[in-house]
Amino acid sequence: MILLRIAFRNLGRRWRKNLVIGALIAVGVAIFFVGNAILESSAGGIQRTFSDQFTADLSISAKSEQSFSLFGPDIPVIGEYESEPLIVNAAKIGDELAKLPSVASFAYVLSSPLLIEAGGSRSPGLGLGVIGEEYFRLFLNLHFVLGGPPQPGNTDWVVITEERAKEIEKAQGRPLALGDRIQLSLFRDQTFTIRDAALVGVLQYKPSNSALDRVVITDGRILRSLCGYSQVDESSAPGAGDKALDTMASGGLDINSLFSATPPPALAADAGKGSGSAAPVSVNDLRKIFSEVRNAAAAPSPLGHDGAWHFILVRAKGNPGEAASAIVPALAAAGGQAQVRDWRGTAGAVAVYVFVMQIVFYIGVGMIAAIVLLLTMNSLVMSVFERTSEIGTMRAIGAQRGFVRGLFVIETLALSAAAGLAGVVLGDGLVHLIHHLPLHFSNQILVLLFGGNTLNPLVSSANIFQSFAAAVVLGAVAWIYPVRLALGIQPVRAIQKV
Asked: Where are the domains of the chain?
């Protein structure tokens, strides 16, 4: 009790100097508080951007020596593209996932770079081949500015982003309309493969960033065709096209004769009826022939889980970590050499880059805290030197080392606690000020770093506790060196300075 009375009396008697020290601590705590609030909102914003709209909570992919993400290889080879490995026993893995209570939903995805062309505009993009109904049920937060998800059973569809749509509209000089044809092409193995699809929707990722703006979502069959994978999910019987050609040949139409000097009998009328001329087959004739071959094939069945897939995106019911732990044995039961990754691993280098930026930000906040600690310790040391005679007198009249130590500890902790509380109040005020006057930015690095186009720090009970605790810890550390100096003062020398 005596220690407390003396300590608080000393604090009141030296209020001007203590006010300076307390202000330093309060400013440091306020900076720590605002920094924590920004980082909390940043981490949550980035995760929401990717997991709610692009990666889901978890992903399953084949194991590989090379690291792959939805964006492709994390370390691409210059001049070529290394294809992502396909999941083995993809359908069996889906069957096992459906049995897990910790898994809410999942969707199968193919991923590949491609070129998007329309209206004279051509630009590279990231193609995602999916099962339409399944994929868009997984990402209910996707915002469509035109159209919407494809209708069930539609196999000729494509969804592009708003940024891509603006590029096309600028090139063709008119707004895009639903049903416009979008051409998708891929160059691989010295060969161009080209497919086109009808536009069914234009979506907007929120917040917008350069990584997601180049995403193109299309039917899995189209991307399989571009990548050269077999269409194992087609219900057409093997050789249906060949049977159509055989039927045409039996009617007098020989495919080999299309390129000979003498036209086939079935096209004799179109090549000059009764004239006996050897006119070549026209382009329209070829189109008619291949149209008949195409129509001879049966309509495709709904795209299933068997066949070529790069990823299975998983939405967890609760904690994603618990869901991942349950998925691992399910993969073993399915017999596939697959791995489970969180949203950051699924996003790959893009999310890792943002994570590194966050670490740099944390280091910056830590450096500010270290500076405040040094300034506080320096102020306390100066305060000890000014109280040399007081300390020596107390030691001369019988005060033990523990008494002097306790006196300084109580004074420093009380000052730090009061300053910490003031710093929390100041930091809370700054956070609310930023909310009322939001800071907008368009730089893509900042958009990725803070998970949006505005800076919206969050106030949480955890942040309040951490900031106040940081002030107390700061005070607990800051008294150590000054007290060692105080206890090292000889009473005789101290009294001589009176």
From this structure: 2-49+352-496, 64-235+306-336, 240-296
The C-alpha atoms of residue 241 and residue 385 are separated, in whole angstroms, by 97
Question: Residue 76: how many CA atoms within 13 Å on its side-chain side?
Answer: 13
pLDDT of residue 234: 43
**Residue from 61, 81, 57, 59 nearest 308 by CA:** 61
Strand duo 103-118 + 311-316: pairing:
antiparallel
Cα angle, residue 85 at apex, residues 79 and 90 outer, rounded to 5°: 155
Structure tokens at 41: 């909102």
Q: Could you write out the DSSP letters of every residue in 328-391? A: HHHHHHHT--EEEEEHHHHHTHHHHHHHHHHHHHHHHHHHHHHHHHHHHHHHHHHHHHHTHHHH
Q: Which residues pair with 117 in a beta bridge?
A: 122, 183
pTM: 0.67
Structure token digits, residue 14? 């030296």
Alpha-carbon gap, residue 54 to 128, rounded angstroms? 10
Run of H or E residues at 217: strand 215-219
Alpha-carbon gap, residue 384 to 488, rounded angstroms: 11
Read out DSSP for 76-142?
A: PPTTS-PPPPPPTTHHHHHHHHHT-TTEEEEEEEEEEEEEEEETTEEEEEEEEEE-HHHHHHH-TT-
Residue type at 472 in one-letter notation:
V
Per residue in 377-387, pLDDT tens? Answer: 777 677 766 77
Q: Which helix (H) or strand (E) holds 181?
A: strand 181-188
Distance CA 490, CA 244 (A): 109
pLDDT in tens, 137-164: 999 889 999 999 999 889 899 999 999 9
CB atoms within 10 A of CB 259: 8
Q: How many CA atoms lie within 13 A of 123 on its CB side?
A: 18
238 upstream amide cis, omega within 30 of 0:
no
Distance from C-alpha of 393 to C-alpha of 468, rounded to nearest angstrom: 35
Angle at 323 between CA 317 and CA 326, to 5 degrees: 135
pLDDT tens across 258-269, in order? 444 444 554 444
Within 10 Å of residue 309's Cβ, how many Cβ atoms? 27
